[in-house]
């Protein structure tokens, strides 16, 4: 099956920086600014949803690589948004260009790779480790 038709699809979602998703709260730093793990979480969430909603129900995608730079701080109470766009497909590997912005401009960017898998086979493989 070819997934070339996914190239060019994109998604975005907005969120806000709260006390709960700061670097201080998530223990990824000591400041009350948007935590890098939270920025990456939103990027991966929208990327996973973008790919999955365009696949047959028995398939999903799993993240295999993240190369993301967090380039600017965002304070508590400011909104931020993540964007994800499928830029290439190689067999079952999907490459997405990702970025994050706050109300003042870009705060992060990079590349995220996902791999299309059969849900049941993948889960069975993971469960067999128990």
Core attributes:
3 helices; 5 strands
What does this structure look like?
The protein is of the alpha+beta class. Helices cover 23% and strands 42% of the residues. It is built from 3 helices and 5 strands, in the order E-H-H-E-E-E-E-H. It has a 5-stranded antiparallel beta sheet with strand order 1-3-4-5-2. Strand 3 and strand 4 form a beta hairpin.
- Number-wise, the strands total 5
Given as residue ranges, the uncertain stretches (5+ residues, pLDDT < 50) are none
* CATH homologous superfamily title: Hotdog Thioesterase
N/C terminus separation: 32 Å
Number of helices: 3
Q: How many separate domains?
A: 1
Largest sheet: 5 strands, antiparallel
Helix content: 10-25%
CATH architecture: Roll
> What coarse outline follows from CA principal-axis ratios?
globular
Brief synopsis:
This protein has 130 residues and is an alpha+beta fold. The protein has three helices and five strands; from the N terminus they run E-H-H-E-E-E-E-H.
Write the topology of this structure.
Elements: E1 10-16, H1 23-26, H2 36-52, E2 59-70, E3 79-90, E4 93-102, E5 105-118, H3 119-127
Antiparallel strand pairs: 1-3, 2-5, 3-4, 4-5
């Amino acid at each position: 099956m070819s997934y070339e038709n996914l190239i060019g699809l994109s998604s975005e979602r907005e969120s806000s920086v709260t006390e709960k998703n700061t670097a201080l709260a998530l223990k990824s730093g000591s400041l009350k600014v948007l935590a890098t793990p939270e920025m990456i979480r939103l990027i991966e969430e929208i990327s996973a949803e973008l790919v999955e909603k365009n696949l047959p129900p028995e398939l999903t995608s799993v993240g295999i690589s993240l190369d993301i730079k967090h380039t600017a701080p965002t304070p508590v109470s400011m909104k931020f948004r993540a964007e994800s766009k499928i830029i290439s497909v190689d067999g079952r590997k999907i490459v997405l260009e990702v970025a994050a912005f706050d109300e003042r401009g870009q705060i992060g960017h990079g590349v995220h790779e996902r791999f299309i898998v059969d849900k049941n086979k993948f889960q069975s493989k993971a469960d067999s480790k128990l």
